Amino acid sequence: MKGFGLKALGMAAAVLLAACSDSEQTTSTDTGAADKVKAGFIYVGPISDGGWTYEHNVGRLAVEAAFGDRVETTYVESVAEGPDAERVLSQMANDGTDIIFTTSFGFMNPTIKVAEQFPNVKFEHATGFKRADNVATYSSRFYEGRHVLGLIAGRMTKTNTIGYIASFPIPEVVRGINAAYLAAKSVNPDVQFKVIWVSTWFDPGKEADAAKALIDQGADILMQHTDSPAAMQIAEQRGIFAFGQASDMKSFGPTAQLTSIIDDWAPYYVERVGAVLDGTWTSTDVWGGFNTGMVRLADYGDAVPEDVRAMAEEARIAISEGRLHPFTGPVNKQDGSVWLQAGETADDGTLLSMDFYVEGIEGSLPSGN
Amino acid sequence: MDLLLLTAILHAILVASTPLVFAGLGALIQERAGVLNLGIEGLMIVGALAGFAAALSGQPLIISVMAAALSGALLASVFAFLVLRLEANPVATGLALTLFGLGLAALFGAQYVGRAAPQVAVWVIPILSDIPVIGRALFAHDPLVYLSVMMVALLWWFLYRSRAGLILRAVGENHDAAHGLGFSVIGIRFLAILAGGALAGIGGAYLTLVQTPMFVEGMTAGRGWIALALVVFAAWRPVRVMLGAYLFGSVTILQLHSQAFGISIPAQWLSMLPYLVTIIALVVISARGVQGTSAPASLAKTFRISR
User: Are residues A84 and A174 in the same domain?
Assistant: First the structure.
């Protein structure tokens, strides 16, 4: 039922968009530099979500700031993943948009499909794994951030129970859970993770309910992979700690927030739109972490003790310099089979398609979509 | 399962259900008068924003709730004018109201995003709250939870024990006959829509004042539609609306807890469960043909004075 309202909203937005830009003519050429570029963005949530979509929109604004008159950007927010996305994408491509960023995993198949119909339009899909000549992919190594969060959580939990609010069992989310768990376990052998899948990216009420359920079952630190700051707020109310997601959520948990993973898309978006202007754009697969600035951490909260802070910083710098990989063996899969031998690090292919829990996490992974 | 956890679960169920109780009652009073209003979602989010804005500006809870009710009623009056006066199609108008409300709240709500409202004080009822297990679960809530139960009782009394309620039901069952008896069908429906808008507004405000004291665009996340389904599920009766809301809330909260316990039921199934329960209840009701479970006879029919 939720889908209905949002879908209809997206439809209305698309109609509006079409109405506003029907007389638009752009000078798009296949090769060579362009005088002016039109960049489009498709968001899965509202730009005011204070998390995932908000940060993508910050990236879009950075593109405008960087290129001024040479760029025109448009966006459609709250686009439902699925057939609706295809329609919005086609609409954008028809309007003479040169490069379109589709900023959610669920837009993968629609992006590929529409890209086939518009070979002259360039597409950039976030967090996916399907590419084409005119479809590039990009993502951030959020699991590097999750590793640092896991270290802090493992050291700071008193009940040895970490609550984790997860959205959908896609590789990106599973990777985050595994990375955080392995890190927490490495500093606290007794640590236990409780994972709740809420089957939504954005429903503050439900995210809050899940947060309460986890706290009532003994969790004293919350992590989330959903988009609203609801869990942070509940953590603040209940006097426990939490990590923000995608964006600095300190205003919702002034004492609760230990730190937050911040997605910084601005450098990437500026670079890619710049490449279209220069005529040097090619389909690439970028997966940046701490080293590229695409993943950052918010300031540590006052509650984080000095020694924990030092440990977290050390890990962050080690990862950034390539001296530490969050997935380093020996690591077994949940069923006990060997995944990584001692000293072996995970390859990107396995990480990008991760569909299993590592050993020690309880509960089973919901079947993927 | 220890008792403390049981108390916490019951408490959470009541909190999760309360917005649905308000919104369900709001839909019910309109449908009892023969008005199908699919704009509940839009009324809720506008109420959510108005209540939140009032709370942020330092108003006490009662003023915030009144602001939510007033804004809901105000938006509903637009619907009333279109449907009753201009005789617009109620289904299309209701859908438009939802879209309009969501957009309106997003527009004016942008300035409130990222801010948190103060927490609402809890009223612990003496003696009753000392009952083991259920005491703290049922009698240590914010005032709005108690208000929602009082509204159920009030609406029940109004519909079944007052003359005004009888007239309202008559308008919903057969507007021509009610008109023939000299009652103002349009006037009564107008009042029902205002009351329904106010209740839906309060339901939305519960989200931004109590459940998650913040405002984000689209945060009602489909609860208005659930409220509409609840009214059908409840066979247009106020007490059953409340019970249905609690059932829905229970399934929602219990599925979250079962996951934290590590019970491995696919999460998708668990998310579907509340909706499945609603559908099954609907099937059972219609298959058994239980008396008095049918919709008001004049529901969603346009009334036109004929001479």
Answer: no
Q: Which residues pair with A124 in a beta bridge?
A: A101, A136
Q: Which of A121, A42, A135 is nearest to A86 (CA)?
A: A42
B291 touches chain A (CB under 8 A): no
Quickly tell me which residue has 């040895």 as its tokens: A160
pLDDT-based confidence at B304, cuts 50/70/90? Answer: confident
Average pLDDT value for chain B: 89
Listed by number, the residues of chain B in 211-230 with a beta carbon closer than 8 Å to a beta carbon of chain A are: 211-214, 216-219, 221-226, 229
Whether residues A322 and A207 share a domain: the answer is yes
pLDDT tens for each residue of B88-121: 999 999 999 999 999 999 889 888 887 888 888 8
**What ipTM was assigned to the predicted interfaces of this complex?**
0.84
Count of CB atoms within 10 A of residue B228's CB? 24
Q: Find the angle CA(A156)-CA(A159)-CA(A164) to the nearest 5 degrees.
A: 75
When CB atoms are compared, the residue of B102, B223, B256 closest to A210 is: B256
How far apart CA B58 and CA A350 sit, in angstroms, is 52
Contacts of A3 in chain B (CB under 8 A): 222
Supply the range of the domain harboring residue A85: 37-140
Residues A98 and A132 in one domain: yes
**Residues A182, A327: one domain?**
yes
Whether A281 maps to a domain, the answer reads no
Q: What is the helix (H) or strand (E) element at residue B269, kind and residue range?
A: helix B267-288
- Contact call for residues B208 and B221 (beta carbons, < 8 A): no
A345: its two tokens: 């690090």
Structure tokens at B233: 């599920």
Task: List residues bridging with A75 in a β-sheet.
Answer: A41
Supply A52's token pair: 């995932």
Domain CATH number, residue A110: 3.40.50.2300
Domain match, A136 and A194 both: no
**What is the architecture, at CATH level 2, of domain B3-288?**
Orthogonal Bundle (1.10)
- The two three-digit tokens of residue B1, written as one number: 């399962």
On whether both A338 and A208 belong to a single domain, the answer is yes
Q: Greatest CA span in chain B, whole angstroms?
A: 69
Kindly state whether residues A148 and A133 are assigned to the same domain. no
* List of residues 6+ apart from B154 with CB closer than 8 A: none
CB contact (8 A) between residue A1 and residue B226: yes
Q: Which residue has the higher pLDDT, B252 or B63?
A: B63
Mean of the pLDDT values across residues B146-162?
A: 96
Contacts of A362 in chain B (CB under 8 A): 262
Looking at the 3D structure of chain A, how many domains does it have?
Answer: 2
Give the burial class of A242: count Cβ atoms within 10 A of its Cβ; 0-12 exposed, 13-18 middle, 19 or more buried.
buried
- Give the domain-ending residue among A140, A171, A191: A140
- Taking CB atoms and an 8 Å limit, are B216 and A363 in contact across chains? no
Compare CB distances from A48 to B110, B253, B267 and report the shortest one's residue.
Answer: B110
Domain shared by A187 and A307, yes or no: yes
Number of A–B residue contacts, CB under 8 Å: 146
**Percent of chain B at pLDDT exceeding 70:** 94
